[in-house]
Design a protein that fits this description.
- The structure is a single chain.
- The protein is built from 8 helices and 9 strands.
- It is α/β, with parallel strands linked by helices and 221 residues long.
- It has a single domain, classed as Metal-dependent hydrolases (TIM Barrel), CATH 3.20.20.
- It has a 6-stranded parallel beta sheet with strand order 3-5-6-7-8-9. The chain has a 3-stranded parallel beta sheet with strand order 1-2-4, covered by helices on one side.
- Strand 1, helix 1 and strand 2 form a beta-alpha-beta unit.
Length: 221
């Protein structure tokens, strides 16, 4: 099992604050059956710092080498108009040095995500929309259009426990639009628990279980 959206790399964003927290989160990942973890610290227009993140990642791997887990580096990029140019100029981290990117959008300001996805795709990148269930302005037709324009869709595992997202998730699952279920873990409070989402999908959408929990994406191979 893989987790492609985490904030386990400590001391770089609003995620893990120290090594102990990071070790705790990795232990939780292992208890949930996760063996491959993509570390995706936040990047945005003001906060790029590729070299800092790469060096921190190398040090972190040494610090937790006693734990039996495979770690990879990427980022969660908050979309901004010059994002594609900065990607081409190697100022932002893709997922494990691939052409896949994890991109998030405003949850407050209505954004034309579908058009942005199209622009990202025609520029040679494969966008994964982070926690798409959290954008309240998106309607069912928007999810369809976003997928049609070339995006992959990631959902947070704990969203399956919240009534707020129930209808959205049912639509996304019924139409087989979800590509990844991830923890988006940050700390002891925003931690890792795939148990409910696994149980729910195994019961209601068994045909999608293997894709969502047992398939290793090509950018981690």
């Amino acid at each position: 099992m893989v987790d492609i959206h985490t904030h386990i790399l400590y001391g770089v964003d609003d995620g893990s604050k120290d090594l102990d927290t990071s070790r705790y989160l990795i232990t939780e990942e292992l208890q949930n059956g996760v063996k491959k973890i993509l570390l995706t610290p936040h990047q945005n227009e003001e906060l790029k710092r590729n070299e800092e993140l790469i060096n921190k990642f190398k040090s972190f791997k040494e610090e937790i080498k006693d734990l039996n887990v495979d770690l990879y580096l990427g980022s969660e990029i908050y979309y901004y108009p010059k994002m594609i140019k900065d990607l081409k100029d190697n100022k932002l981290l893709t997922l494990n040095n691939s052409n896949y990117i994890l991109v998030e959008f405003s949850t407050m300001i209505e954004t034309d995500i579908s058009s942005i996805i199209y622009d990202i795709k025609i520029n040679g990148y494969i966008p994964i929309v982070a926690h798409i269930e959290r954008y309240p302005y998106l309607k069912n037709k928007d999810y369809d259009e976003i997928k049609k324009n070339g995006a992959l869709i990631q959902i947070n595992s704990k969203s399956f426990e919240k009534k707020l997202f129930k209808k959205k998730l049912k639509y996304l699952l019924k139409n087989k639009l979800i590509d990844f279920i991830s923890s988006d873990c940050h700390n002891e409070k925003r931690n890792i628990d795939f148990s409910y989402s696994k149980k729910y999908i195994k019961k209601k959408y068994k045909d999608q279980y293997q894709k969502l929990f047992e398939t290793i994406p090509e950018f981690l191979n």
